[in-house]
Amino acid sequence: MGSSPPSKSNDAPAPPLPVPETIQCPRPICLQYLKGLNLNRAYFNKHMNRCYCSNCYGPSKPNVFIAANSKFTVPRGWVSFGIQLDQAFASDKGIFKNWYTTFYGTSKDKLSEIIRNRFIPFPGDDLLSGEKFILNLPDQKHVYTSPSINYASLSHICPVDRMNVNDNFYDFQVVLRCKQNPADVQKFASGKPNACELLPNDNIQWKTDQRSSVLPISLLIRATKS
Ligand SMILES: [Zn+2]
Predict the structure, then answer these.
(1) Could you tell me the distance, in angstroms and rounded to a whole number, from the CA of residue 206 to the centre of ligand 1?
(2) Domain locations in the chain?
(3) How far is ligand 1, taken at its centre, from the CA of residue 80, in Å?
């Protein structure tokens, strides 16, 4: 007892310790948003759902993973909803071992068309719905992806959808996590050099002209309180 320093009566009271803000897991909010999108439930495999908020995926865990000898970012802050896969195709191609993991930023109105198509369509493709896949990009001959969720979710690729959930407004974004055939992938630098601090900028944008080579495996949703 005697070893503790004597208290001085003229000391100002110690300021209260900052209370760490409780991070609420965004999973229920993102699930509510997903339900509102009215996508066919048969597209999804809830056994593959994951949450990468700081509660569910702790700060000490890795920020980057490797697939097919290529780095990709962990989608920290996003909630991942598993997409039903063609298991025969997946195992035949060995996609979890041999294919890259990439991200494809999109908008909510395109999700149904893309997931139903199984692979990311090319601009101008005829879809099963009978409509064409329209993307207002100067390059209509490639599918663009990125190994970085930070790059793929830039707002010019991945628009923000503001919505009220449980009396709070959130900005929602949607990104498809994909397995991508490494054949004929071209990698190049971004014009926005600071989009991702985890991966080098000089090959953060990828494109391919190969059909049926980018397969969505989960729908990532991020809710940011606005
Ligand atoms: Zn969580």
Answers:
(1) 29
(2) 27-225
(3) 10
Amino acid 194: pLDDT: 87
Q: Report the separation in Å between the CA atom of 47 and the middle of ligand 1, taken as the mean of its atom positions.
A: 15
Span 142-158, pLDDT tens digits: 999 999 999 999 998 89
Contact 203, 188 (CB under 8 A): yes
CA distance 12 to 32: 48
C-alpha distances in Å from residue 161, one per residue of 18, 33, 190: 33, 10, 24
Question: Taking the complete model, does pTM exceed 0.85, yes or no?
Answer: yes
Class of domain 27-225: alpha beta
Q: What is the 3-state secondary structure (H, E, C) of the chain?
A: CCCCCCCCCCCCCCCCCCCCCCCCCCHHHHHHHHHHCCCCHHHECHHHCEECCCCCCCCCCCCEEEECCEEEECCCCCEEEEECCCHHHHHHHCHHHHCEEEEEEECHHHHHHHHHHCCCCCCCCECCCCCECCCCCCCCCCEEEECCHHHHCCCCCCCCEEEEECCEEEEEEEEEEEEECCCCEEEECCCCCCCCCCCCHHHCEEEECCCCCEEEEEEEEEEEEC
Write the pLDDT tens digit of every residue in 154-175. Answer: 998 899 999 999 899 999 999 9
- Write the single-letter amino acid at 84: Q
Whole-number average pLDDT of the chain: 91
